[in-house]
């Protein structure tokens, strides 16, 4: 069993952990990165399935994601725009398909007016929220005690307006039922993207992709770290004191002055801490849980929807696949669609056989794109809920009341242990951009303490 001594040990080789490791190493400290999986990247994973390159994990880059854009540029990677020429489609409550352009769904004028008014109200609220400290808002406690669904339904009795407004932070982002998280949590999600309007604008949020896949970011960072990255090393025990820590994995022991836990908070309980973490952390981490979404990939011999003048962008709070997009790879003559099935719908689908699940998902895509959608050459479901070292998707969020109660303590180091991942970011929350920001934040804290 290898026995190493380092200045810093990072647990988790996702974007946050590898960024933290890169920053401390750049500053002259020695580092070891321990990763439970047999690959780097965490929730970033680009793989080839039946000859098709698929982004099994995160993939998009939006204009406000400066930390990610800087990293992409620094690594010499290229981006390309998501295909969006032509009409989007919306399926209404009666199952009717509507083609449209622009941001606003083709709903009745009264519903459109209601959506616009509440969006304006939300943008004003979000503008007052600091994404790094949403709990500091004067009304934070009040906003954290009401569910997102209850608040929306208190604004209007127009069910279609509520469903379309709710979906941006519910099914689409936090991937939990809208009664399961607070208005404050929803406002944080919007503030992390700059505004609620940004969050509902697919052309903004899902702007660009990286040529060759977004997992190249962690792969290239790990390549630079070289022999300091150790795969297949799930950490079992951390023995710590104010002087430092001993980190014990399946195949090695690392003695270090500083530890960065760069994994989702839902996984902290897989590690035995000696002594135990303080009671505040024990309580806090039990109020954080993963959402769940199935990311569906369907590859066709050509992007047939473009022949119909469709962009591939599709939405409906009434459909099994609540949103779908043209996800064709750069320079690929085949066409790829990506669709998403969230929260309770995702749970229900996994109670079915694989064949029935596929049939129902493709039927939903066919409601947007026509019967040709039912016959992909390659079909794949990203199921992060069954991943041992992730346990959900896309990310973790607090339950009702948890953000105001515990949020301020989420990133606070405990002895030599710092915390970093996208689940605790402000700007870039739940995105790779946030993971990079949190990796930088943890590294800066360690370097300050090392100098002190």
From TrEMBL:
GO MF entries: oxidoreductase activity
Entry protein name: Putrescine oxidase
Binding site for FAD: 35-36, 235
Family: Belongs to the flavin monoamine oxidase family.
Keyword Phosphoprotein: no
Species this chain originates from: Microbacterium telephonicum
Binding positions (substrate): 340
Source domain of life: Bacteria
Keyword terms of this UniProt record: Oxidoreductase
Keyword Oxidoreductase on entry: yes
Domain Amine oxidase: start-end pairs: 16-447
